[in-house]
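Minimal example, chain plus iron/sulfur cluster.
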Amino acid sequence: MKTSYNEKLLRINLTTNEIKVEPLNLEIAKKFIGARGLGSKILLDEIDPSVDPLSSENKLVIMTGPVTGASVPTGGRYVVVTKSPLTGMIACSNSGGEWGAKLKYSGFDGIIIEGKSNTPKYLYINDDKVEILNAHHVWGKTSTETDIFLKEKYPQASVLNIGPGGENLSLMAAIINDTDRAAGRSGVGAVMGSKNLKAIVVNSSKNSIPVNNPDALRKELVIAMKKIKEDGVTGTGLPTYGTAVLVNIINETGSFPTNNWQGSYSQNAENISGETLTEKYLKRTYNCHRCPIGCGRVVEREGKEIGGPEYETLWAYGGNCGVYDIPTINEANFWCNELGLDAISVPCTIAAGMELYEKGLISDNDCEGIPLKFGSKIAVVEWTKRIGFGETSLGKLMALGSQRLCEHYGHPEISMSVKKQELPAYDARGIQGIGLNYATSNRGGCHVRGYMISPEILAHPELLDRTVTDNKASWTKIFQDLTAVIDSMGICLFTSFALNAEDYTNFLNAATGTEHTVTSLLDTGERIYNLERVFNKRAGMKPEDDQLPKRLLKEAIVNGPSKGLKSKLDIMLPEYYKARGWENAFPTKETLQKLGLEDLC
Ligand code: SF4
């Protein structure tokens, strides 16, 4: 039967320089869909979850999904699955741009990278020709320099690479593709750096893939495009203002953390809003592969176009570090991309450093000429560079993330992180469900494992009262399971504002020939979520790791419309475990059996 899988995996061993092409087990692929689900299954099968994430025993699994490269809106994404050096748990970071589709067109569903090279290397894939090549000439270069150098050699190719952040093993290092698209979170770039792998260049003579039922896929495409165009978020908000459309919306709810979450509302938010960004600084918008939404921003720096900031980055450098100035944030964001750094975790670590400094815990001496003061434009740019280049003792310490930084100074509670990963831009005291999602996210502090902002703020698919805990457990579970499906298909999560589970079911069936119902598809998402949780348990996760920072549980919001609120995680968490069939934060034997994961019991 024809499917949209290539049915081929590439295995690269960097210790032995061995290149192998292996058949994809189609039954397993369908059971876990692809991308995030299949990548997680492969990782759990192939590594001991207790390994040192930066050792040669860890693997980097780069996977596409079954609709990556197909005629599906936003169907161009790939994921990187590995054991995270930041959290010590499973990492899955995904990215758009063109690289994922190119890999799919080259004839592979994914790449399993194992071992470690003694010298810097890059991979070159051109359809079925695969080479491991010397990367001495690009080692040490920034991500754009690397991209330009390799594109001169391979003009039609798409380049994925790490910057100095990954080379220097910053635990917040990202993998960058197509100049400024990032698989940003959980330190996946450090794992690539630990293997001495600088880049993966992909080219293909093809620009389409076969699918099981082209007519059905075309029909679904027409339906989906209409929904995406007509929806207020995907048809107007994101195309016009990018994700930064959220700055004013979240600030007006009083859930916009400021100064390392010491406040939750800012009168200066308008200065860094999507409206201001569009009006004063936007050069043009950017669309990833086959994306009709185009949330990407392009701004200008020194006469050249560069990628503009997302909502999270505007918040993290803006509200959270107190720098309400878009040109400065553009500059800091530029350095995150150039150095290959996560543009959420890095500014949040700087914000934690600022709180430590202002409380007298970090000295001027430690700061070596650049005091970590809230509101300092120089500090946010220069400390980003110090982190990425591994400069100064404090810069090297900050490169390990906020939790390790704050522990070093004896105040771990100042790190606003879950499972050692920095929290994103929504105050969990003012929006209860997103806090439950943060606490239970398998990859640590993260909004895009179960984006409860959709129902709690944006009224998609319906409006929930953000201040109460009622039904948040079941909603969070459904959002997490559906997100696991979307991430596994190779499609952008932002489509979910306009599309529903039935749309995804129809796309997947048309592409692969599966006969999923909405229920069986959500069960598959649940299977993936549980498999990730088993990985974490074997990696050493403890029940108490499903937690929020003390500040969100004990200290009420001090200003703005949500003043007085605290997170009621203690009410939601037992309800959530019950909904999931988990005891003490982990799946029971019965739950694993029900989900077809008996081999993990
Ligand atoms: S919505 Fe934005 S992030 Fe998603 S695929 Fe489109 S441009 Fe890329």
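The longest helix spans residues 518-539. The chain has 25 helices and 19 strands.
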